[in-house]
Write a structure and sequence with these properties.
about 280 residues, alpha/beta, two-stranded antiparallel ribbon, 11 helices, 10 strands, binds adenosine-2'-5'-diphosphate
């Protein structure tokens, strides 16, 4: 599929394939290894992992064993959310490289503005410290691009104000029903790429009747509509599946959604993850 090799260009000129293969909640060892291997076999060239997913070693091994040259695959990992010091970030990044078995990383993100078990805590100072360590690795060429994840405009302003560096990307939950308009508009204005994790709302958005009906009209599946929606919004979707047929299905999104239908999808303001139905 063309979309797997099409790229966005980050503000520093680095090219990033428009769809990434997500590995959150993909269990380590065989499942992570096989999923990444299937994704690469089926044309994906962008893999997203994180230290917190605890599957970096399996992801790295699959990439190596695929036989595809390292430089042809874009790989992202993330600094664990509780690490908010300069030294801690330096150590954690080197550990990530070791786990993956790489000598450089394409994109490295601060996983969240606060530790997951202290959501909302003000960690402005710690985020700046961690980001300063990442800037150093970036300048040394050990990381091709650096950014953040789950950051609000205010959290990003703090980084920019205190480091004079505009992050290249912000990875956030983004899907039909949760369009994150304020963060999206802010990032667009600052030329920060939005990466959309959970583009299917961890599966729940697949059951939305409006999405199901529209998919029928386009002769596509609900998953394809939802992934295409992210692309139409200029974001980079990170779908994930452990099944090969779905991994393939999720990459068949070389179509466009008409403006009138995008308006219908934009009008859905309901995060289905809350209801679990
Ligand atoms: P599975 O791994 O069993 O295929 P998200 O990317 O929004 O986090 O959603 C991931 C969830 O959606 C996983 O539970 C995954 O399950 C499921 N999923 C992924 N792709 C599809 C698809 N094309 N059709 C149905 N379910 C899918």
């Amino acid at each position: 599929m063309k979309v797997l090799t099409d790229v966005y260009v980050l503000s520093n000129g680095v090219k990033i394939p428009k769809i990434g293969f997500g590995t959150w909640q993909v269990p380590d060892r065989d499942v992570a290894y096989n999923s990444v291997m299937m994704a690469l076999k089926n044309g994906y060239r962008h893999i997203d992992t994180a230290a917190a997913y605890r599957n970096e070693a399996s992801v790295g091994k699959a990439i190596k064993d695929s036989g595809i040259p390292r430089e042809e695959i874009f790989v992202t990992s993330k600094l664990q959310s509780h690490i908010k010091t300069y030294d801690g970030a330096k150590e954690a990044f080197l550990q990530t490289l070791e786990e993956l078995g790489f000598d450089y990383l394409d994109l490295y993100l601060i996983h969240a503005p606060w530790p997951w078990n202290e959501m909302g805590k003000n960690c402005d100072e710690g985020n700046v410290e961690a980001f300063k360590a990442m800037i150093e690795f970036y300048k040394e060429g050990k990381i091709k691009a650096i950014g953040v994840s789950n950051f609000s405009p205010k959290d990003i302003d703090n980084i920019i104000k205190n480091t004079d560096f505009v992050p290249h990307a912000n990875q956030i939950a983004f899907f039909v029903g949760l369009d994150q308009e304020e963060t999206r508009a802010y990032c667009e204005e600052k030329n920060i790429l939005i990466e959309a994790y959970s583009p299917l709302a961890i599966g729940y958005a697949l059951k939305n009747p409006i999405v199901i009906d529209m998919a029928k009209r386009y002769d596509k599946t609900p998953a394809q509509m939802l992934i295409r929606y992210c692309l139409e919004k200029g974001t980079l979707p990170l779908p994930k599946s452990t099944h090969e047929s779905r991994i393939i299905e999720n990459s068949h999104v070389d179509f466009t959604i008409k403006k009138a239908d995008m308006d219908i999808l934009d009008d859905i303001h309901d995060d289905p993850r809350r209801w679990g139905n």
